[in-house]
């Protein structure tokens, strides 16, 4: 589903923003989960087929008063959108965050205006815009 997410983002923005290799991603995912660097919640549709997932990791910052969760990837397959699947996934990670003592969750949305619907979803789920933009520098 990560490949589907990245493909959807790149299609919407018209830019080859990501490189995706399934074998490398599986290897990375296995390492992250085994070392508890990364937490993944998967939602299944009736019949057991994966319908969506949300992934996050623990972050640390003085401004956040310690540990907090950062959502790194979140995807619901198009045929399951609008059925509260995303709401249930976010509810699960909120409970998970409380159990870990986090005071907040953070997320960066894909570029606007193409993903205005995504921003609206997060706002309905209690997230608020804190300003700024996500920037990166390749090393």
Please give a structural write-up.
The protein is an alpha+beta fold. The chain has a single domain (2-124), classed as 3-Layer(aba) Sandwich (Aminopeptidase), CATH 3.40.630. It is 35% helix and 23% strand. It is built from 4 helices and 4 strands. The chain has a 4-stranded mixed β-sheet with strand order 1-2-3-4, with helices on both faces. A hairpin with a 4-residue loop joins strand 2 (50-61) and strand 3 (66-76).
Number of strands: 4
**Top CATH class:** Alpha Beta
Task: Output the number of helix runs.
Answer: 4
Kindly identify the CATH topology.
Aminopeptidase
| Main beta-sheet annotation | 4 strands, mixed
Radius of gyration: 15 Å
Order of helical and strand elements: HHEEEHEH
Structural class: alpha+beta
Would you spell out the secondary-structure blueprint of this structure?
Layout: H1 2-13, H2 22-34, E1 39-44, E2 50-61, E3 66-76, H3 85-99, E4 105-107, H4 116-124
Parallel strand pairs: 3-4
Antiparallel strand pairs: 1-2, 2-3
Summarize the structure.
The protein has helices at 2-13, 22-34, 85-99, 116-124, and strands at 39-44, 50-61, 66-76, 105-107. The chain is of the alpha+beta class and 139 residues long. It has a single domain (2-124), classed as Gcn5-related N-acetyltransferase (GNAT) (Aminopeptidase, 3-Layer(aba) Sandwich).
Please describe the structure with a list of short key phrases separated by commas or semicolons.
139 residues, Aminopeptidase, four-stranded mixed β-sheet, globular
């Amino acid at each position: 589903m990560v490949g589907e997410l990245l493909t959807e983002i790149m299609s919407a923005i018209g830019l080859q923003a990501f490189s995706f290799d399934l074998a490398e991603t599986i290897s990375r995912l296995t390492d992250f989960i085994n070392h508890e660097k990364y937490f993944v919640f998967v939602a299944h549709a009736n019949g057991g087929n994966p319908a969506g997932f949300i992934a996050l990791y623990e972050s640390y910052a003085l401004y956040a008063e310690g540990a907090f969760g950062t959502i790194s990837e979140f995807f619901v397959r198009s045929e399951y959108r609008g059925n509260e699947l995303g709401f249930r996934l976010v509810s699960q990670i909120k409970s998970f965050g409380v159990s870990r003592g986090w005071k907040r969750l953070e997320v960066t949305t894909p570029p606007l205006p193409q993903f205005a619907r995504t921003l609206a979803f997060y706002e309905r789920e209690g997230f608020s815009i804190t300003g700024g933009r996500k920037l990166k520098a390749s090393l």
